[in-house]
Amino acid sequence: MFVVWMFGRISNKKTLRRPLWGKYVFTTLLLYLGYSFLFSPYFSRIWPYHITPQNKFSGIIGVLLCLLGASFAIWARFTLGRNWSGVVATQKEGHKLIKSGPYSIVRHPIYLGFFISMLGFAFTVGTIVAYMAVLLGLIALLLRIWIEEKLMNEVFFDYKEYSRKIKRLIPFVW
User: What pLDDT digit, counting tens, does each position of 80-116 carry?
Assistant: First the structure.
């Protein structure tokens, strides 16, 4: 996923507006803290208690969730094309509201993909610390969604109608 994101930054349109930098930095730090919990053996040694069983079945389920989440996020990223930005921003030159592909399922499919991947990794690792990381990541994603939705409502006249039809993060629920 990292490679897709880095190459995508090269071909992006120029940014028109980047609101709320402080909140963006805060949510990014929360995400990085969550990922450090997930990937650092240090945190798992401090609090090694497992919630999910450590067996082949839970490992397979976790890996499948990781792959599903990553694939969904990458699909969403490619669907956005040059309209994508690593920060909550709108682009110049014909930035349009994307409603097709994964954006016809949920309004924030990249965030849903990240969340599913993090959950899959936590399921595979199984420790309390891994699930704490998922919680931190979810908080960061929810804050970013809140920031992004405010901007989208200001920029796209049809966003209100789109948001009535398509759920935010969980298909058919929220």
Answer: 887 776 666 555 566 789 999 999 999 999 999 999 9
Residue type present at position 20:
L
Distance CA 143, CA 121 (A): 22
Give the residue from 1, 60, 30 showing the smallest Cα distance to 135: 30
Tell me if residue 88 falls in helix, strand or coil. Answer: coil
- C-beta atoms surrounding 160 within 10 Å: 10
Q: Tell me how crowded residue 164 is: count the other CB atoms within 10 A of its CB.
A: 8
Dist. CA 38–CA 128, nearest whole Å: 10
Strand extents, DSSP E, the chain:
15-17, 90-91
- Domain ranges across the chain: 20-45+53-83+104-157
Pick from 150, 149, 157: which is nearest to 174 by CA?
A: 149
Q: Which residues pair with 90 in a beta bridge?
A: 17
Q: Which residue has the tokens 């890996």?
A: 63
CA distance 45 to 79: 40
pTM for the structure as a whole:
0.78
